[in-house]
Amino acid sequence: MFGFGPDMIYAIPGLLIAMTVHEWAHAKVADNLGDFTPRMHGRLTLNPISHIDPIGLIMLFFAQIGWAKPVPINPNNFSNYRQGEMQVSLAGPLVNLITALVATIFFALTFKYNMSMHWLTAVLQLIIIYNVNFAVFNMVPIPPLDGSKVLMALLPGRLAYQYETSVIARYSFIILILLVFTGILGLIVRPISGLIINFLNIIVSLIV
Length: 208
Known about the structure:
This protein is mainly α. The protein has helices at residues 6-32, 37-40, 54-63, 81-112, 118-138, 146-154, 157-164, 167-170, 172-181, 184-207.
């Protein structure tokens, strides 16, 4: 969690980039699959203003759990309902990981060519961390996170419906808050994020 000060300033680009590319990816894939709902709502853009929910962003800074404005989609416009919804859901986390990889390469090149500066190093590190964490966190199978939609797309129809109407789905926000503040979610997310970041560190060492 970041308080007011330099750390928060360094964190802002990482947070905005992670949230923006995540939501843009959902919109882009839905649009490519024939659903123009995100386009009609002005979400087919990399302008952070179109994606950021002010309260969700403030909560992310101070409560370690936040949200962007969900991208509206209409799965009925997909030629394959389940496959389309799964592709749209996976797009956000995947683009977060690609963004983290690009930031990692740029981070390594700044050292290789002696262009590293404290502020740039801090910003790039946080871009990497936030994008990796966004990808992993959003794959947790609790509604409305992307992982729940992927799970429902993979489950047989009856099981998918039961999950969608389950206690977990009805009280998902409360469950997520409890998981965050009890540290249970961190026990799930941190090890996976750590493995991905270790892999990215290997890329840095190879480049440098």
